[in-house]
Automatic annotation (TrEMBL):
Every Phospholipid/glycerol acyltransferase domain range: 34-144
Keyword Manganese: no
Protein name listed in UniProt: 1-acyl-sn-glycerol-3-phosphate acyltransferase
Keywords tagged on the record: Acyltransferase, Transferase
InterPro entries found in the cross-reference section: Plipid/glycerol_acylTrfase
Molecular function as annotated in GO: acyltransferase activity
Length: 193
């Protein structure tokens, strides 16, 4: 319930103040495990990633945020889970994989995020997808959150990561590069539109 209310508020905010245009939502599976992989430039990227979609999107967040009295309670109730300072712990990875195996959607920023806060960093997104069998949907966030200037979010078609199923270090690097290449392609293709 809280997630739906928050999504409606963010949808209103993004539509009115940033003229949000969402494209390719039909590319996001309506059920089953999905990893949304987006580029990351702002603290507003996580809510933007999930706002246009009907499904709940789970995110990793800095563990310290969960210690803030009201905020910690709110972000847990909207599907965030903690990551300890200094990198993603095994516990966080286990929880992320379990969420995916249970058929949920996870938002990840494979480039490592803005200053690596809340992102999986390099090979994490590919690793989670391959461990859980989740669909990987590349997402391009276009714009810089200037008031009353157009923001665009483009959901690409799910990527086939089966060639990297061995999940060796080299496979994960190549899978990550395939994800990032598609995000860059979407960004370039829709930046001028």
């Amino acid at each position: 319930m809280l997630y739906r209310i928050g999504r409606a508020l963010f949808r209103f905010m993004f539509t009115v103040f940033f003229r949000l245009r969402a494209l390719g939502m039909e590319n996001v599976p309506t059920h089953g495990a999905v990893v949304l992989c987006g580029n990351h430039t702002s603290l507003l990227d996580p809510p933007l990633l999930g706002t246009p979609l009907k499904r709940m999107v789970h995110f990793m967040a800095k563990a310290e945020l969960f210690d803030i009295p009201v905020l910690g309670s709110i972000i847990s109730r909207v599907g965030a889970f903690p990551v300890k300072r200094g990198g993603v712990s095994r516990e966080s990875i286990r929880l992320a994989v379990q969420l995916l195996r249970d058929g949920n959607m996870l938002g990840v920023f494979p480039e490592g995020s803005r200053n690596n806060a809340g992102g999986m960093g390099k090979k994490g997104a590919a690793s989670l997808a391959l461990k859980s069998g989740a669909a990987v949907v590349p997402v391009a966030i276009i714009g810089n959150y200037s008031l009353f200037r157009r923001m665009t979010i483009v959901y690409g078609k799910p990527l086939d990561l089966s060639p990297f199923a061995a999940a060796s270090s080299e496979d994960l690097e190549q899978a990550t590069e395939a994800i990032m290449k598609e995000i860059r392609r979407l960004h370039t293709a829709y930046s001028k539109g």
